[in-house]
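User: Structure please.
Assistant: Input sequence and predicted structure:
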Amino acid sequence: MAGTRKAAVAVVLAALALTATACNNNDDSKNAAPAAPTTAAPTTAAAAATSAAAPSTPPAKVSPAVFLEQVSKKTGAAKSAKVDEVITVGQVTMKGQGAMGWSDGLEADLTMDLTGSPMAKVLEPLTGGPKVHYLYTKDAMFMGLGGQLVQSGGPRWLRYDKAEMSKASGGSTDQLQSADPVQGVRTLIASGKVTEVGPETVNGKATTHYSGELAAADLVKASGPGVTQEQADLIKQNLDKAGVTSEQVDVWVDADQLVVKRMEQADTKAGPMNVAVSYSDYGTPVIASTPGDFLTLADLAKLADSGSGS
């Protein structure tokens, strides 16, 4: 029936908006829970280990900002890593695991566990369960399908191009920025107030912890290269709508000047937001090629209008 198809399309669109970016917290998705976050990008917040190894420290007489510039270059040169993240907004939690690369744009192969989100039950007929497989290429995002839309042997993926991703995420040009370790360091530097918190052990590694706070205007400026004025205005509007006036950014760096963990925290109208991403196995291969069997949003709209196959 057409109504069934249209409902399925609406669910897919709501889910894509939900997982498009970790920092967007719009209230205009009627199919998504009000407190649900979006993702990128997208890792569990690591518990502090008890290793007694000596922590990494920046060279003498080098400011935290200068040292983090070195970290940005060293982490950027590593090109890829395994990621493990947890995204929480209010009482809603999503978790993701996989690998991402940043040598030529951002690419990733991630699996999101939506068990802690109200969207899990809604998506299950489409995905076959609470876990959703995502592929991010330089041009698009692909969401794995496994439920009623493909039960007759149809395409296994839904393609969501960059323009559609930007619209759903409130102007963000790349939805993986929330998990990009290089962007995380650059955002912290952009605060202009980065401080060295001190040595801490994270994920069994000796690290040095750096922290900074960004006002909403700084967050817009730190959104990444290539952001147009229209996109910047939209990002600012969405921050205002979500009630975000500032954000705290923290990174933990090891002795090899590689990011071990990144965290973003902010207060929103839906409750406290926390995005924690851990990194390991730098240089790991990332396979995120375009699938050969996929539907587009236009294809879904046609299915809804046809009312066939329900």
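The helical segments are 2-18, 64-78, 119-127, 162-168, 181-190, 216-221, 229-242, 297-306.
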